[in-house]
Amino acid sequence: MSGLLLRVLVLLALLCGALPAFATPQVFLVQNSGWMEPFYADPQSRFKPLVTELALAVAQPGDALVLAAFNQSLPGAPSPKALMSAKVGEGTRAQVTKALAGLDTARKPGGALADTDLGEAVSAAMTQALGGKDGIVWLVTNNRNSPNNDQATAQRNREFYELIHRGGAIRTALAFPLRMQVQGEHYRANGLMVYAFAIGPTGAQALERLLASGSIARIITEPPARLKPLDRNTVRLVPRKVEDAPGVSFSMGPGGVLRADVASGATSPSAKIGWNIENTMYPYTIASASLSARSKLGGEDKPVTLGSARVNALVPGKPQPLASTLQLPVAQLPSQWSMDAIKSAGSAYVLPGTIEVHLADQKLNLSGAFRERMAALFPGDPLPDIFTPPAQVQASTAVLPIEVRVHYGMAPLLAVGGGLLALLALAGAAAYAWMRPQRAYVTVEDELRTMHARAGADQPIYDKAGNEVARLKTTLFGHQLTDLREGAQVRLGR
Asked: How far are the Cα atoms of 28, 407, 462, 472, 483 from residue 443, in angstroms, in the given order?
């Protein structure tokens, strides 16, 4: 297990420190043991171009890319052996092409063709090339797992699949069986297998993005066989027919999100939804399973009434109808006079949630068509038996995101806006009245005087001799005399 060269580890550490947050390290392990001889010897072989195009399709600019050859590690003959390591950029195609050009079948120190150890290669990629961090490991192999020239390849493959299913670091495992007929001096082959192992949550998210973007499908047109996980996202629900309640309608949004559009006046929104339930676990058929579902919206966790409590013989690519009744959380929806409704006026208030479908007592069978395909690509190899799901996988959960969208219209916003305008007008009138000088008539010793003052003013009043005999206090509501001196001849008005 001397593994990848130290310079790869150092370079990967430097690259990962400089990569953007979304960059995903990718490791390509290319088998070059004796069993692979026809893929290298046949002049018509498309083996190396396939590896080149796949690596360039899935490795995004900025990703750290490691390309390594593997067989079985022996003293003096380490495996895997690094062919190149770089940060993906403009010159990556030339680097990959050059690295693969000189690659040929490996030999043991004694001269015999090298053996194969799939588990050793994958473990080295995770612990050494990725350094225990998240990423994607690609394994290109003819699926002949034969450490120390062990002829019991079926048993060795079982050990390899145990590594996949029991390894907690491997979040997603996919297999792409490909037809490629090649003839060498010693062996011939009908096909090879490309595995994709998503390591850690970041690696799983990156692999999902690659599948969704079609990057892999542009190079490998065959659908991937899922090895892991088999306990989640095993089915998909697609609305087929909706019997809307008054004020409620359903539709599918981007990314498979179910949207429930609710009018603000709807008081008890619920709907009968006819789904298509689809098996997403190619190449497995869900022979039987019991079904249940729950909706989690607005803090409420309620059961969804299903038309059938079981599903049988659900084959990938052949959906089955499933009826249901879904209740929406009326009590959790804001009233039309709430602040949430006012802020959402003219658009929609969105309440996110999920519908969870649970399959229990799940029994899976490997599809007959897949068995036939594998037998044709790998004749004499009992590999399909190894695709049998682990015994502990007897239940699974699928999650459908849902958005409840309430449309309130403009009435609440207009009402609140009108009220604010009225308050502003009243405040403006009060301010004007406060600032505008008011006229007051005061008679002092039979002499009529005219005084001007703003609200809040307090002015002295003098008699003819210049003595202060009173004060004039002005408010928004008029004038009044204060501090009137005894015997003074002062009055408001004429």
From this structure: 106, 67, 11, 12, 16
Cα distances (Å, whole numbers) of residue 158 to 102, 128, 152, 172, 372: 32, 24, 10, 18, 20
Sheet order of strands, 458-462 included: 458-462, 468-475, 478-482
What is the C-alpha to C-alpha distance for residues 64 and 139, in angstroms, rounded to an integer? Answer: 17
CA angle in degrees (0–180, nearest 5) for 221-225-229: 135
Distance from C-alpha of 25 to C-alpha of 29, rounded to nearest angstrom: 13
Q: Residue 349 above 80 pLDDT? A: no
d(CA 65, CA 62): 9
Query: What is the per-residue pLDDT for 216?
Result: 94
pLDDT in the model for residue 21 = 42
First to last CA, the chain: 114
pLDDT digits (tens, 9 = 90+) for 224-256: 999 888 888 888 888 777 776 666 777 777 766
pTM: 0.73
Residue 336 pLDDT > 90: no
Q: Which two tokens stand for residue 431?
A: 């301010």
Give me 305's structure tokens.
Answer: 């009434």
The token duo for 70 is 């593997």
Asked if pLDDT for residue 481 goes beyond 50, the answer is yes
pLDDT at 5: 42
Q: Is the pLDDT of residue 469 over 90?
A: no
Residue that is written with structure tokens 């003839």 in the block: 183
Residue 20: pLDDT band (50, 70, 90) is very low
Query: What is the C-alpha to C-alpha distance for residues 86 and 67, in angstroms, rounded to an integer?
Result: 9
**196 within 8 A of 170, measured Cβ to Cβ:** no
- Give the per-residue pLDDT at 268: 57
| Phi, then psi, of 216 in degrees rounded to 5 | -75, -40
Q: Are 154 and 161 in contact (CB under 8 A)?
A: no
- Pairing of β 284-297 and β 300-303: antiparallel
Give me the pLDDT at residue 435, please: 65
Query: 225 pairs with which residues across the strands?
Result: 175
pLDDT digits (tens, 9 = 90+) for 41-54: 999 999 999 999 99
Contacts of residue 459, Cβ cutoff 8 Å, sequence gap at least 6: 451, 453, 471, 472, 474
Tell whether the model's pLDDT for residue 18 goes beyond 60.
no
